[in-house]
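Two quick folds needed for the group meeting slides. Do the first one here.
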Amino acid sequence: MKSKILKLFIRNLFLLTLFVAFSYNIVSAQSDNKKPLIGISSYSESDVVKAGRTYIESVRKAGGIAIVIPITTNVEQIDEILERIDALVMIGGEDLSPFYYKEEPNRFLGEVAPERDVFDIELIKKAHKKGIPILGVCRGEQALNVALGGTLFQDIPSQVSGSVQHNQKAPRNYGAHSIKVEENTLLYSLLKKGLDKNNHIRVNSFHHQAVKDLGKGLKITARALDGVVEAIESEDGKALGVQFHPEGFVYSGDDTFLPIFKWIVDKAKE
């Protein structure tokens, strides 16, 4: 009798173990397949908070879920937002105020958005401190540099001798000028298939400001052929900034720069 009870106990224990293992594998698989939440910074226009569909669709195409973060100067709310997202994309837009890097405004300084400046700088600083992956695009790259203590050329045409046209008059999916990508960098690994034998690739260009002095923990990974900085990345591999607009290509169906968005989505999964 005791032998039968023992056999029954062992059998049930075996079945219970199988059930627990099976359930764990299902939950684990669901967790692995869960798409990361990518926060997209925003800009304000006529009291409406916005972010371009180009960014949202690029994140979606790369396998993530995009959520637009409304501008706020409430520090506590920024902390709560960062607790909920897995990565951050800082988008393009207005000029950054030079007061953030202790300079007076150049006569060619464009439109600035004071409330957005406060929001973007604070958002980047807190995300960086928390180790949240960051992708900065155009203004987003510049804001990343400034948030980490760097400076900018306020106006390329008047401050960089011999510069090419950096504010193109062509569509967003047209590569207006070339950049050279440095080997052994994150950006090189992402764009390697699209580079020519000189490590050049053509990019779009919609800016008149650019990185001058680097922020702490950053390095230059690409330049235009006139020497203007076109990409930076952090030494810890958690932040990437590009001066061009990869989303402009991806949204139009050109996947040459899609690996940039795949990187931020994959990094978010970690």
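Then this one, please, same format:
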Amino acid sequence: MLIDSHCHLDAAEFDADRRPVLAAAHAAGVAMIVVPAIREHNFAAVRALGRDDPGCVHALGLHPMYVEDAPESELDALRGAVAAAIDDPRLVAIGEIGLDHFVPGLDRARQEHFFVEQLRIARDFDLPVILHVRRAQDAVLKQLRRFRPRSGIAHAFNGSLQQATQFIELGCALGFGGAMTFTRAQQIRRLAAELPDEAAVLETDSPDIAPAWLHPGRNDPAQLPRIAATLAELRGTTPDRIAAVTTSNVARVLPRLAALITGG
């Protein structure tokens, strides 16, 4: 079993062929797909994917790159949406939330305000977090230490080994996807090879971060087996073992997803 721990399947890039994309992913062995929200306007869309396909679960959150023009009321809307959906087992996390210090011109103070308030929501509802961490590892770690969400995933991780260790100590797994398939991505590949088994989860971030064999085209969740094979090669093990280990890791950090897998 493979789990795509981060896939924006609701994105417009999939409007023409979303069902065939889902069918191809499941045929390739991707049993579960985690679909995080980015703004209030797509809360309904990510929830609908879980209702329509038993292989989809969702997270609700406000993406740091898009809070620039988000009204404060979206935080209230998020809290209300989580409260309304808290008994839905397919709501598995608060996300995609975090900080982006890579894109120039974004208001860092506003990002941090939205991040902090969403960590409060995660804490209040005892939900894990799905984190966007781009050139902002230390700033995200500071807030994780402050609020101590139960667990989470640092999506598309690209920090240092020391930072990786701190995320792991705070109960997070680290997401590895298409970027790892490029031979020039030496830091990510080194991390993928060296981290302990319990650290890594697989992701595509579809339709973004296409792997080397698709770049610069549209990414999709059916690419996950080849991404898993890359991780297996880097770690000197088999794709089957990578599938088992990463599935176990997702289940650990997203307990509601674990219950769906086991039927508990």
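Slide caption for protein two: The first strand starts at residue 2 and ends at 4.
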